[in-house]
UniProtKB/TrEMBL annotation:
GO MF annotations, alphabetized: acyltransferase activity, transferring groups other than amino-acyl groups
Protein name: N-acetyltransferase
Organism listed in the record: Bradyrhizobium archetypum
Keyword Transmembrane: no
Top-rank taxon: Bacteria
CDD domains attached to this UniProt entry: NAT_SF
N-acetyltransferase domain boundaries: 18-163
The entry's keywords: Transferase
C-alpha cells in the first residue's frame, strides 16, 4: 500500500490524466451509469448490496477517478461489523473500460486504503477476485469464519488488516453498521430500484 497522499487529488503513476478525488454530489448520475455499465441491471440484487442498502458510505471514504473533466471510476467503503469486529467493506470498485489501462483502478485502491488507515480504520473486507486484490494485500487467510447475508463464493471473500491482528478470530455474519440514509433519500433509492429491477414472484 502506498503512503497516504497529503493532497486531495492524487495522480496515478502511469497517467497524469487520471486524478483521484473525494466523491461529489454532482458525480451521482455518472457514478450510477458507470456501475450499471460495469455490473449490469441486476447489480442491486447482489449479496454485498444488502450491506449498502439504506446506508451512507463511511465518512470521507467515497472516491471518484476523473479524467478530462468526466468521471471514469468510483470506489466507496462502508462500515460493517465482521462477526463483532469493526471493519470496512470495500466496493463496488468500477472503472470504465478505456481508463483501466491508465491504472485508475489501482490508483483508487491505493488512495482509498491509505485514507482508511489514516482515519484509524483497522481492517477492510471485500468480495472480489483474489488474483487482482492480492496486489493490495488482500487474502482469504482470516475470512474463513465470516459469512455474508446471501449467496457468495468463499474464496472471493477477502480481508486486509490495516493494523496487525485486526481480524484475528473473526467469525460470524458480516452486517452493516453505517449511518442510515435520511428517510427521503432512502425512499427515492427504493423507488429507483423498483423501476430498475423487476419483482420476482
Amino acid at each position: 500500500m502506498t503512503a497516504l497522499r497529503k493532497t486531495t487529488n492524487a495522480l496515478t503513476s502511469q497517467a497524469a490524466s487520471v486524478a483521484i478525488r473525494s466523491e461529489r454530489a454532482s458525480d451521482v448520475a455518472a457514478r450510477e451509469a458507470l456501475l450499471d455499465a460495469c455490473f449490469g441491471d441486476d447489480r442491486h440484487m447482489r449479496t454485498c448490496q444488502r450491506l449498502r442498502d439504506g446506508r451512507t458510505p463511511a465518512e470521507g471514504l467515497a472516491f471518484s477517478a476523473v479524467s478530462g473533466g468526466r468521471l471514469v471510476g468510483t470506489l466507496r467503503l462502508w462500515h460493517v461489523s465482521a462477526g463483532g469486529i469493526p471493519a470496512l467493506m470495500l466496493g463496488p470498485l468500477a472503472v470504465e473500460a478505456s481508463s483501466r489501462r491508465l491504472g485508475a483502478g489501482a490508483a483508487l485502491m491505493d488512495h482509498a486504503l491509505a485514507a482508511a488507515k489514516a482515519r484509524g480504520h483497522r481492517a477492510v473486507i471485500l468480495l472480489g477476485d483474489a488474483p487482482y486484490y492480492a496486489r493490495f494485500g488482500f487474502s482469504a487467510a482470516k475470512t474463513g469464519g465470516l459469512s455474508l447475508p446471501g449467496v457468495f463464493e468463499r474464496d472471493r471473500l477477502l480481508g486486509l488488516e490495516l493494523s496487525e491482528g485486526a481480524l484475528d478470530g473473526a467469525w460470524g455474519m458480516i452486517v452493516p453498521t453505517g449511518a442510515r440514509l435520511p428517510k427521503i433519500r432512502a425512499a427515492r433509492a427504493r423507488k429507483a430500484k423498483a423501476v430498475l429491477v423487476p419483482r420476482v414472484a
